[in-house]
């Protein structure tokens, strides 16, 4: 696995087959960006594809957002660590006992363990969608509360929108990693995302890692799109 990666970009390999994902990866440099395998690709291509990406030198974020009873989540996170991934995540709303079980499952991996991250509120969620699912707090309050719980449970950071990054650095400290999807270059379509931020603003707000899918993978030339984003960040 590449030890140092020059940009904070994590390219979301959201494809419905392994060949397309590997073709995209072939256009990427593991010294420049990381890659993310999510639910669609993992369901279709499974652990073999993850092993291939790791063998190619990529730091792989396995974005399966586990949410289950503590014993099941602990076992799933352990299985992810055995694949050699760099980062894995669980839903913070699974609660402290679930998150602590996941963290403890990684103890035997020592310094080689993946980063363990809690998902706060999905970047596709808008303020008005919280009340119907029983959340009475404001979106910002909910994100901060879940991030604090994630930190108290011993995890390394959270997934959030870069809109909340500054508040979370204040609430949880500089070392608490902020992983932010919902990144859109100026003028790009929001698609199904609701809390979007440009790459440069995300870094200015305090994001540590920028998860970017369609603005790169659906571009006419994905390598050029990535280069443009990396350049924008370098000028930051
Ligand atoms: O809150 C979240 C958590 C995960 N994601 C994932 O990130 C990418 C974003 O892709 P885009 O094409 O750049 O919108 C995708 O894989 C999501 O599953 C997220 O968007 N928001």
TrEMBL record:
Purpose of the protein: Catalyzes the decarboxylation of orotidine 5'-monophosphate (OMP) to uridine 5'-monophosphate (UMP).
Active site: 65
Stated family: Belongs to the OMP decarboxylase family. Type 1 subfamily.
Residues the record lists as binding substrate: 14, 36, 63-72, 123, 184, 193, 213-214
Annotated source species: Microbulbifer elongatus
Keywords: Decarboxylase, Lyase, Pyrimidine biosynthesis
Its EC number(s): 4.1.1.23
InterPro entries with a match to the protein in the record: Aldolase_TIM, OMPdecase, OMPdecase_AS, OMPdecase_bac, OMPdeCOase_dom, RibuloseP-bd_barrel
Domain Orotidine 5'-phosphate decarboxylase: 8-229
Catalysed reactions listed for this entry: orotidine 5'-phosphate + H(+) = UMP + CO2
Annotated protein name in UniProt: Orotidine 5'-phosphate decarboxylase
A matching Pfam family: OMPdecase
Subunit relationships: Homodimer.
Keyword Lyase: yes
Pathway(s) this gene product operates in, as recorded in its UniProt entry: Pyrimidine metabolism; UMP biosynthesis via de novo pathway; UMP from orotate: step 2/2
GO molecular function: orotidine-5'-phosphate decarboxylase activity
């Amino acid at each position: 696995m590449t030890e140092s990666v020059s940009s904070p970009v994590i390219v979301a390999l959201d494809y419905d087959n392994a060949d397309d994902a590997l073709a995209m990866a072939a256009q990427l440099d593991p010294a420049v960006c990381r890659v993310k395998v999510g639910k669609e690709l993992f369901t279709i291509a499974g652990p073999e594809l993850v092993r291939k990406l790791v063998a190619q030198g990529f730091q792989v974020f396995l974005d399966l957002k586990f949410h289950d009873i503590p014993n099941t989540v602990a076992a799933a996170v352990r299985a992810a660590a055995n694949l050699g991934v760099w980062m894995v995540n669980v839903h913070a709303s699974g609660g402290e006992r679930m998150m602590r079980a996941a963290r403890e499952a990684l103890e035997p991996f020592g310094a080689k363990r993946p980063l363990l991250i809690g998902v706060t509120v999905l970047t596709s969620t808008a303020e008005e969608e919280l009340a119907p699912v029983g959340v009475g707090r404001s979106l910002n309050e909910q994100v901060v509360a879940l991030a604090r719980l994630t930190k108290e449970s011993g995890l390394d950071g959270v997934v959030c929108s870069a809109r909340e990054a500054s508040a979370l650095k204040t609430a949880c400290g500089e070392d608490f990693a902020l992983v932010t999807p919902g990144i859109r270059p100026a003028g790009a379509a929001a698609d199904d995302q609701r809390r979007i931020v440009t790459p440069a603003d995300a870094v200015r707000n305090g994001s540590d890692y920028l998860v970017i899918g369609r603005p790169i993978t659906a571009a006419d030339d994905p390598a050029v799109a990535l280069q443009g984003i990396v350049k924008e960040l370098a000028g930051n």
